[in-house]
């Protein structure tokens, strides 16, 4: 559902609703919208999605089929087929875990959106000072490029097996339908994937399954980017406020009360943002952990398949998902690094203040605040690793070298 909300009749004023209303063409035209944002009494509410539950069930069945078929390939000592299935299974695990995170944390997502909306600037002047429009325009451009790229690549990915089947399959021989003619080579009972007569129905099933699974990644990306970008925007704004703070007012008898009231507001704002950052990490650490594991598995096996490929078409087939997987890790690491940077900047700004020329009381405030911000906030996956560019470098070096 596209949310439309006018704020005080001002056309230039942005709203979080504008970002929630951005949909991928599959979500807009095919109805594959897993998170239907609504306003109930002015607050965000995300109702349960039967569509998401059905998609998750199909994804779990598909992952189970991949495991069964991989076991059969290993038992038959068909190493190449086992590698192909493991590469597909890795991406299937990523999509399933991200969709599962959306389904299990629906109430937490609603709460987080409301917590963000609670401090969202409503006036045009404040939004200009916070550069809200700049942030929102960047997010909209990013979603447009991502959605356009995915539409083109996924459409090619879904149509290629059918085209190869029509061009290269020998209909007179009535042989079994090879995995290369399927969108997803996972196992299904009774050998239905091997028969020419059932191929059209299986192909439609695979297209629906792949579209639903890709939409899990798209929806997860939309939620993650909107929330972490808003959080980074608030941290940057707090840093701007601290830079503009006049510490000399702490020694002016006429301004001291207003100064400390303002300082207390900044401290409360920082504590509120830190709590939001912790909630954000709790929301996404499960999906980030399993996503990274699945992507690493898929990257490794795709690289092996590329080196063993016998023609350029096979190389392109295996390389295409490889670039997508590298981008998925890079994007999460980029946002994690940005959050780490803006939180570290708070400590730098506090230290750069002329606290040594101010009152002893303000010096104590500054010292305690500097100590509390000595370590920047970092996204983690259950404290196993930090989600930043160093993590991206480590994953790439271990997978590619």
Automatic annotation (TrEMBL):
Pfam family, one: 7tm_6
GO cellular component: plasma membrane
InterPro entries: 7tm6_olfct_rcpt
Domain of life: Eukaryota
Keyword Cell division set for record: no
Topology versus the membrane: Multi-pass membrane protein
One Gene Ontology term of the molecular function aspect: olfactory receptor activity
Gene Ontology biological process: signal transduction
Subcellular localization(s) per the UniProt record: Cell membrane
Keywords: Cell membrane, Membrane, Olfaction, Receptor, Sensory transduction, Transducer, Transmembrane, Transmembrane helix
Transmembrane segments: 143-163, 202-228, 283-306
Protein family (similarity comment): Belongs to the insect chemoreceptor superfamily. Heteromeric odorant receptor channel (TC 1.A.69) family.
Protein name (database record): Odorant receptor
Organism: Bactrocera minax (Chinese citrus fly)
Source lineage: Eukaryota, Metazoa, Ecdysozoa, Arthropoda, Hexapoda
């Amino acid at each position: 559902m596209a949310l439309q909300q006018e704020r005080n009749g001002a056309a230039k004023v942005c709203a979080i609703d504008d970002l929630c209303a951005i949909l991928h063409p599959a979500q807009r035209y095919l109805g594959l919208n897993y998170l239907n944002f609504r306003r109930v009494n002015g607050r965000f509410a995300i109702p349960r999605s039967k569509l998401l539950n059905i998609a998750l069930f199909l994804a779990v069945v598909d992952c189970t089929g991949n495991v069964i078929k991989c076991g059969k390939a290993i038992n038959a000592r068909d190493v190449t087929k086992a590698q192909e299935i493991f590469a597909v299974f890795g991406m299937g695990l990523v999509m399933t875990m991200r969709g599962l995170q959306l389904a299990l944390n629906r109430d937490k997502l609603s709460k987080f959106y409301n917590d963000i909306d609670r401090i969202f600037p409503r006036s045009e002047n404040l939004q200009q000072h916070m550069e809200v429009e700049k942030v929102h325009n960047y997010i909209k451009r990013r979603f447009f490029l991502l959605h356009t790229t995915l539409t083109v690549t996924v459409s090619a990915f879904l149509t290629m097996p059918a085209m190869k089947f029509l061009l290269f399959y020998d209909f007179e021989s009535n042989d079994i339908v090879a995995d290369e003619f399927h969108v997803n080579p996972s196992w299904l009972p009774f050998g239905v994937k091997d028969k020419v007569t059932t191929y059209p129905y299986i192909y439609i099933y695979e297209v629906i399954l792949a579209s639903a699974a890709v939409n899990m990644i798209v929806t997860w990306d939309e939620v993650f980017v909107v929330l972490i970008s808003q959080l980074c925007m608030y941290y940057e704004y707090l840093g701007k406020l601290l830079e503009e703070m006049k510490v000399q007012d702490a020694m002016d008898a006429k301004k001291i009360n207003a100064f400390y009231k303002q300082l207390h507001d900044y401290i409360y704002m920082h504590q509120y943002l830190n709590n939001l950052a912790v909630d954000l990490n709790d929301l996404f650490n499960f999906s980030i952990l399993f996503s990274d594991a699945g992507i690493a598995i898929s990257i490794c096996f795709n690289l092996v398949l590329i080196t063993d490929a016998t023609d350029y078409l096979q190389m392109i087939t295996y390389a295409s998902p490889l670039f997508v997987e590298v981008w998925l890790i890079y994007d999460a690491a980029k946002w994690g690094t940005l959050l780490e940077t803006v939180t570290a900047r708070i400590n730098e700004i506090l230290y750069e203040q002329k606290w040594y020329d101010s009152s002893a009381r303000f010096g104590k405030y500054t010292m305690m605040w500097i100590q509390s911000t000595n370590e920047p906030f970092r996204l983690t996956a259950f404290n196993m690793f930090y989600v930043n560019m160093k993590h991206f470098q480590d994953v790439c070096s271990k997978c590619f070298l």
